[in-house]
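User: Quick sanity check before I run a bigger batch. Here is a single chain. Can you write out its predicted 3D structure?
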Amino acid sequence: MSLSLADIRHLFGRHGGMAYSGEPITQLQHALQTAALAEEAGAGDALVAASLLHDIGHLLNLQGDTPSTRGIDDLHQYYALPFLRPLFGDAVLEPIRLHVDAKRCLCAMDAEYVDKLSADSVRSLKLQGGVFDEKQAGAFMSKPYSHDALALRRWDDLAKSPTRKTPSIDHYMTVVRRVVSG
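Assistant: Done. Predicted structure follows.
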């Protein structure tokens, strides 16, 4: 099954109010903040769209609030791909697929990065396989779109403010519409 743009908008409308994994924000606030940070950094439309959609797997595979506290890795980075693949190319899909491994890589490459992770990100890191070793980090860095995934990951980590103002979902759906394949 694939999603239409209307389906994506509906998912955010229906489930975007869910808490975002133990953080003081909702799923929608997190998506909008991540996209806003990408846009502010001058990212292209594909990476802004990926930033908005990077956690949509949580809205498709509902596991309740903070599944990591129950030992669940919902594999959201993979779950969303079959639903999104008919609409988007690799410039959107690969940063989404790689954003969890980007966290594992950043932990290996930047000792200070680990100390900045939220409690839920630390819990989920363990469930997601832990910190990469040097060989795994090197292999990750050689993948296409790894640098986009690293940027997305850093924005993801910063997108957890209950007071940050962002453009609306409709603003970002316009960006998403511009990168639809076909």
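The longest helix spans residues 90-109.

User: Great, the batch can go ahead then.
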